[in-house]
Amino acid sequence: MIEGPLLLVVILLAVVLIVVGASVFKVHPFIMLLMASLLVGIVVGIPAIKVVGFINDGFGSIIGGIGIVIILGSILGVILEKSGAAVKIAEFILQTIGRKSPELGIGFLGALVSIPVFCDSGFIILSRLCHVMAQKRNIAAGSLFLSLAGGMYTTHTLVPPTPGPIAAAGNLGGESYLGLVIISGLLISIPVVLIAVSYSKYIFKKYPYESELSDTPILSDQSLPSLGLSMSPIFIPLILIGLGSVAQFVGFHNGLIDALVFLGNPVIALLAGLLIAVPLLKYIGKVERSSSFQEGLVQAGPVLILTGAGAAFGAVLKATPMAQMVEGWLSGGDAGGIYFILAGFAFTAILKTSQGSTTSAMVITSSILGPLLSLGGLDNPTGIVLMVAAIGGGGMTVSHANDSFFWVVAQFSGIKDIKVAYRTITVMSLVQGMTILAIAISGFFALLSQNHY
């Protein structure tokens, strides 16, 4: 079996194959991940039939752990989008937080809505509110659009059940700690959104532009569900998952603790959210009502197969001598964990920048680093949370012309000049990503460094 530096060369070539195949030849990352898994296993010297077994086991284990969560989250997001619940939540936030600072209100609105709703479609929906608010408040539309994009992109990369962070958590062995990942992702999101809002206000003073008012009508108050009904399907699952995570750390069992652990299981919590969302269906047209579930399944499909393929790649890597090789490098080095955090950010950022997809970049990086976390002392709840954050920060760095969200933001914001789009959307994603990295590094030295020195 191949070992040492030659093994590293094989793995690096496999990663290059994935990136080039996906970005240059436009082959779906699922196919490239499977091909890379097979090639690495066979070239390294693992018997071919065993390589297939590792691929199947890796794919099946991750889908079994988080597949239902991804499906339920996708369906819930479609219902919130089509029923007008997302717009109702938007109106509430803009009338409260957004009164004194519209940019701040719409930034946190984007962060909230992007947890269950895919950020591309969520931005399209809420961009109409930016047009109206800019007109009513007589303020520059650009800062509103960019604040919304920054808020949505933040939770898109940090907070499950959004596909990227939930896949990263699964690949890193954090299926049992999703509640902690959600809570920490929400806390990290607060300063990151504040940074995005501040940058939005600053940059559009330098690069103002005119945006035409959208002709798409805003839903009327009469067609929207109540605020409580709109927010319950989001907040009740998050609260249940949070309580379940706390209950798991209590250390003893009784009826209440066991019930909280059960209800806090992400599958049960999201299923409860979906049941709570059933009354929202009456706000959806009869034709679209039956298709909402189908659309959620369609949205979840690509995420599921990509997540499974990433886990399969990680399973093959775990079967190679890579872990022993890295362990040898780190022997005698006390700061291994911080190197993993930096590597997680840097590698994800390279993949994201080169091939455009945040989710695939997070999946690939987490599948490679997952088998190695114990070598850096990060195979614990805190370490996994910090790694998910670092990988999420890398997945945000940077959004540019090969990223669909970049074009959605530019087009629906009315940005016609590509240079302005780069100076605003791209630079903001870089600033946000670096902020997340700084938080992850600070968290490591505050919470884990004592284990290494």
Automatic annotation (TrEMBL):
<feature type="transmembrane region" description="Helical">
    <location>
        <begin position="384"/>
        <end position="408"/>
    </location>
</feature>
<dbReference type="Pfam" id="PF02447">
    <property type="entry name" value="GntP_permease"/>
</dbReference>
<keyword id="KW-0812">Transmembrane</keyword>
<protein>
    <submittedName>
        <fullName>GntP family permease</fullName>
    </submittedName>
</protein>
<feature type="transmembrane region" description="Helical">
    <location>
        <begin position="234"/>
        <end position="253"/>
    </location>
</feature>
<keyword id="KW-1133">Transmembrane helix</keyword>
<feature type="transmembrane region" description="Helical">
    <location>
        <begin position="59"/>
        <end position="80"/>
    </location>
</feature>
<dbReference type="InterPro" id="IPR003474">
    <property type="entry name" value="Glcn_transporter"/>
</dbReference>
<feature type="transmembrane region" description="Helical">
    <location>
        <begin position="31"/>
        <end position="52"/>
    </location>
</feature>
<feature type="transmembrane region" description="Helical">
    <location>
        <begin position="259"/>
        <end position="284"/>
    </location>
</feature>
<feature type="transmembrane region" description="Helical">
    <location>
        <begin position="358"/>
        <end position="378"/>
    </location>
</feature>
<feature type="transmembrane region" description="Helical">
    <location>
        <begin position="329"/>
        <end position="351"/>
    </location>
</feature>
<keyword id="KW-0472">Membrane</keyword>
<feature type="transmembrane region" description="Helical">
    <location>
        <begin position="104"/>
        <end position="126"/>
    </location>
</feature>
<feature type="transmembrane region" description="Helical">
    <location>
        <begin position="296"/>
        <end position="317"/>
    </location>
</feature>
<feature type="transmembrane region" description="Helical">
    <location>
        <begin position="176"/>
        <end position="197"/>
    </location>
</feature>
<feature type="transmembrane region" description="Helical">
    <location>
        <begin position="420"/>
        <end position="448"/>
    </location>
</feature>
